[in-house]
């Protein structure tokens, strides 16, 4: 539960990617998947507090295509692989 509270505290201050969250909490980058898995639980917790977990969706750096899911690897429009990762914030 302490990890969830730490992530919530970070996201209340600024918009971050899962990798940036790992870095700021001193976690290995491999735990990025764990951060993504926590997002549904975090959304429910902050909703009870009257706040919302917001996602700035991933975006292709080549053509600007915005994805609807938080994890993307290849752009369907230009087939580029330069994807800016999703950012999360709490408001």
Name the descriptors:
91 residues, alpha+beta, Arc Repressor Mutant, subunit A, two-stranded antiparallel ribbon, two-stranded antiparallel sheet, 3 helices, 4 strands
Mean pLDDT: 94
The total tally of domains equals: 1
Q: What is the strand content?
A: 5-15%
CATH topology: Arc Repressor Mutant, subunit A
In helices, the fraction of residues equals 40-55%
Number of strands: 4
CATH class: Mainly Alpha
| Strand adjacency order, main sheet | 1-4
The shape, in one word, is globular
Largest β-sheet summary: 2 strands, antiparallel
Radius of gyration based on Cα positions: 14 Å
Q: By helix and strand content, what is the structural category? A: alpha+beta
Describe this structure as you would to a colleague:
By secondary structure, this protein is α+β, with helices and mostly antiparallel strands. The protein has helices spanning 2-13, 18-25, 32-48, and strands at residues 53-56, 59-60, 83-84, 87-90. It has a single domain, classed as Arc Repressor Mutant, subunit A (Orthogonal Bundle), CATH 1.10.10. Strands 1-4 form a two-stranded antiparallel sheet. A two-stranded antiparallel sheet has the order 2-3. Helix 2 crosses helix 3. The longest helix is centred in the middle third of the chain and has 17 residues, at 32-48. The radius of gyration is 14 Å and the shape is globular. The two termini are 21 Å apart.
Which helices and strands appear, and what pairs or packs with what?
Elements: H1 2-13, H2 18-25, H3 32-48, E1 53-56, E2 59-60, E3 83-84, E4 87-90
Antiparallel strand pairs: 1-4, 2-3
Helix pairs in contact: 2-3
């Amino acid at each position: 539960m302490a990890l969830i509270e730490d992530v919530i505290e970070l996201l209340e201050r600024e918009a971050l990617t899962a990798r940036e969250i790992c870095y700021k909490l001193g976690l290995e980058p491999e735990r990025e998947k764990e951060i993504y898995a926590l997002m549904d639980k975090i959304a429910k917790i902050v909703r009870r507090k009257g706040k919302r977990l917001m996602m700035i969706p991933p975006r292709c750096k080549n053509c600007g295509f915005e994805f609807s899911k938080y994890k993307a690897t290849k752009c369907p429009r230009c087939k580029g692989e330069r994807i800016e990762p999703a950012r999360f914030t709490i408001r």
